[in-house]
Amino acid sequence: MSVLHWTYLFVGLSFGLYLYIAWMSRVRDTKGFYVAGQGVPAIANGMATAADWMSAASFISMAGLISTMGYSGSVYLMGWTGGYVLLALLLAPYLRKFGHFTVPDFIGDRYSVRNQGDQNDLWSRVQANPARFVAVICAIFVSFTYVVGQMKGVGVVFSRFLDVPLTTGVFIGMAIVFVYATLGGMKGITWTQVAQYWVLITAFLVPTIAISMNLTGQPVPQIGLGSQVLPSIDSAQPYLLDKLNQINQDFGFTSYTDAFAIASWDKLNVFCVALALMCGTAGLPHVIIRFYTVKSVKAARWSGFWALLFISFLYLTAPALAGFARYYMLDNVAGLNGKTQETLPQWYKSWEKSGLVSWFDLNGDGTVQFTNNTTSIPMTIALEDRREGGPTQIWPNEVFKIDSVPMNVRQRMMANQGAWLAAHSIEPLKELMTVGAKHHPDKDMIVLASPEMAGLANWIIAFVAAGGLAAALSTASGLLLVISSSIAHDLYYRVVSPTASEKSRLLVGRIVIGFAILVAGYFGIHPPGFVGEVVAFAFGLACASFFPAIVLGIFSKRVGTAPAVTGMIVGLVFTGFYILTQRADAIMLNPEIAAAIFGDPDSAIRQPWFFGINAQGIGTVGMCLNFIVTLVLTPMFPPPTQKVQDMVEAIREPEGDSPAVMIDAPAH
To answer: Percentage of the chain with pLDDT > 90?
Structure first.
C-alpha cells in the first residue's frame, strides 16, 4: 500500500480508539471532568502524564532542533527532563496533599485575603481573592501559548501525510480534540493519553532503530550515534559524529559537536533557556493537574517515577534520531546537496508540496546548494579552515521554507519556478525574503521526514504520522481542560456565580473548550515560531508567573497575598512584553502594525535588549523579578491567616497514605 493509504489506516484506527475511549469514559460530574474522580492508578497516570508531557515539541520539534543546532540543541533536552525531576520531587506531592482541582485553586486558597467581607457582587468577590483571579489569567495565558504549538504540529503532520493544506489539517485536529475532550473530561483524556503514549513511543522508536541499523548496523540508536558508519555508507568508515562535523563544516554550518558554537546560543543563553524550561515545567498547570487525579500522595510520588521512566524512552533516543536525520539532510550522497531536478530524492518531492522545504536555483547551475551562507555571493573558506579534499568556498543557500509566503504568490512560484526566477533575476534572494521565505527547511518536518529520507517501508512512514498526531493531540487535550477548568471552575463558579449547579458548570466548561479550540486553531495556522520555540515561550511564562508563587506558597508561611500577587503580575508582564517585542510581527499578525507600535525590526527594542538574552530564556529573568518583588514586599505586609499557615504545615507532610487536606471554598 502507498504511504497515503497506510496513513489513512493508522490515523483512522488510532483516532477511532481515542474516540471509543472518550465515549466509554464520559462523565457527568465535575470531579470526573476535572480530576478523573481522583482514582487513576499510579502506573496509568504515569503513562498519561508522559503522553501529556511529550507534546508535539518533544515528538516533532525537539529532535529537529538538536539536528539543526547540534550540541546547542541539547538545552531543550536538559531543560525539559530536568524540569520534570524538579516538579515530581519538589512540588507534585505537596499539591496532591492540598487536594483541590486546579493550580489557581491552590493559589487562591494559599493567598486568600484576611478579611473577605461581603461578597454579594462580582467585584467584591474578585477583591476577596485577587490571587485566584491573577492565577486564572496566568493559567489561560500559559495554556493558550502552549496549545498553539500543538495545533501547528497537527497541521504539519496532516499537510504532508494526508495531502491537505496546513489549514485543513489544523481544522481536522480541532474537531477530534473537541469531541474527546468535551465528552470525557479528565477521565476520558487520561485513558486516551494512556493509549496515545504507546502509539507515540512506538512510532518514535521503530524508525529510529531501523535507521540506526541502516547507517551503523547497531540496533541500539544511542550506541549507533557514537559508532562507525557502515562501509556501504562511507568506505572510510568514519565515526558518525565525525562525519556530521565534517559535512556541517563543508557547508558552512558550525561543528555538530562543539559547545556554544552558535553565536546566539552562548553560555548565558543556554543557562537561561535551560532554567526557564526547568522551572517552567514545574509551573505548567496541565502537568501539575495530573497529580490531582491519583488516589493518594504516595500514588502521586509513584506517578512521578513512572512518568519519568516512560518519558526517558523518547528523550534518550531523540539525540540519535537528530544525528541520523542531519546526515540524510545534508550529505552530498544521501542528502540534498549536489542533486539536480532529476535526482532529487522522493522525500523532498513529497514534502515540497507543504512549503516546508523548497529549492530555488538562484545561481542557475542546476544543482542544489544547501548551505549556511545566507548572502547572495559565495564565501571563501580560510586556508587554515580548509580540510584536505574539501571545498574551498561555500555557495549561497538555495533551500528555503515558503509556508509563510501568501498562497497566491506561492502558487505562481511553484507553477513555473523558472519564470518566477527570471522575473526577479536581479535580486532573487531579496525578493524571496520579501515575500516571506525563510532560509533552510522547517525544523518541524525533520523527524517526520526522517523515515522517508532513510528509505524505510511505507507503513513505518505512516506510523510516524500517527505518533506525531498522538503527541500533539494528547497535550492539546490536557491544555484545553486547564483552560476550561480555569474559566468554568476558578472564574465562573468560584468568582462569578458561586451558586451555579453542577450541570451548568459542566456546560460552561464544555463551551469554553469549544471557544478555546477555535482561538488555538487560528494561532496554530499563524504561529509566532516553530513548535519547539512557541512551547518554550509557554514555559517561560509559567516560570515567571506560577513557579515562585507555588514554591513560596509551599515552603514559606510568611509570604502573604499582596507580595505574591504583585510578584506574579510583574513576572508575567515583563516576560510577556519581552516575548512580544521579539516576535512582534508574528504575534501582531501584521508586520506594519508591529512596526507602528514597536518600531522597525532593526530597532533596539526589537532586538534581545536585556543582556542579549533571547525570548526563549527571558522567563528566567521574569522568575527572578517575581522572587525579588515578592520577598522584598513580604516584610511590609501582614502574614497569612492562621488557617492558611495551618494548611501550609499540613501539606508539608506528604509521606504515607494520609488523606488529602480538603479546604472548603470560602462562604459566599
So the answer is: 9
